[in-house]
């Protein structure tokens, strides 16, 4: 079920990125830190009405965590169903983020790290960018 939620989210993310780019006035990002802050401060606010905090998890600045104090996906869920303790509703969000990033040519591994529904203090989504961005310099032909 978790893989299916991720797959559904991926499909949503690949379509949602077009709407996001059309409706937001974001400019080109020059670092993974900028990308992650745009996801947290613009995209989450625009589509879910919440703004997660962002932390960087390593010195190479390619691993980040989005920490949600309030998770709209689990707002109406009291507890996980019996026998479904491994279910992660937020895998939908992971798929959305991964799909949207892929559509703008950023390969990333997006995983669900902590869940308030499972007794953790916060809901945390981890984003690890998989390759360094290529600086493309275009020259005008004369």
TrEMBL record:
It is found in: Endoplasmic reticulum; Golgi apparatus, cis-Golgi network. Gene3D superfamilies: Trafficking protein particle complex subunit 3. Homodimer. Component of the multisubunit TRAPP (transport protein particle) complex, which includes at least TRAPPC2, TRAPPC2L, TRAPPC3, TRAPPC3L, TRAPPC4, TRAPPC5, TRAPPC8, TRAPPC9, TRAPPC10, TRAPPC11 and TRAPPC12. May play a role in vesicular transport from endoplasmic reticulum to Golgi. One of its GO terms (biological process) is Golgi vesicle transport. Pfam families: TRAPP. InterPro entries: Bet3, NO_sig/Golgi_transp_ligand-bd, TRAPP_component. SUPFAM superfamilies: Ligand-binding domain in the NO signalling and Golgi transport. Belongs to the TRAPP small subunits family. BET3 subfamily. Its main location: endoplasmic reticulum. One of its GO terms (cellular component) is TRAPP complex. The gene is LOC101582441. This is Trafficking protein particle complex subunit. Keywords: Endoplasmic reticulum, ER-Golgi transport, Golgi apparatus, Lipoprotein, Palmitate, Transport. It comes from the Eukaryota.
């Amino acid at each position: 079920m978790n893989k299916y939620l991720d797959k559904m989210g991926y499909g949503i993310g690949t379509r949602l990125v077009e709407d996001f780019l059309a409706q937001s006035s974001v400019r080109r990002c020059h670092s993974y830190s900028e990308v992650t802050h745009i996801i947290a401060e613009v995209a989450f606010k625009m589509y879910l009405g919440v703004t997660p905090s962002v932390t960087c998890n390593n010195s190479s600045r390619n691993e980040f965590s989005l920490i949600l104090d309030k998770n709209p996906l689990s707002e109406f869920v009291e507890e996980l169903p019996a026998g479904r303790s491994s279910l992660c509703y937020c895998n939908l969000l992971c798929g959305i983020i991964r799909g949207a990033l892929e559509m703008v040519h950023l390969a990333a591994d997006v995983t669900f790290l902590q869940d308030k529904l499972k007794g953790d203090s916060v809901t945390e989504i981890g984003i690890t960018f998989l390759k360094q961005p290529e600086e493309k310099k275009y020259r005008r032909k004369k």
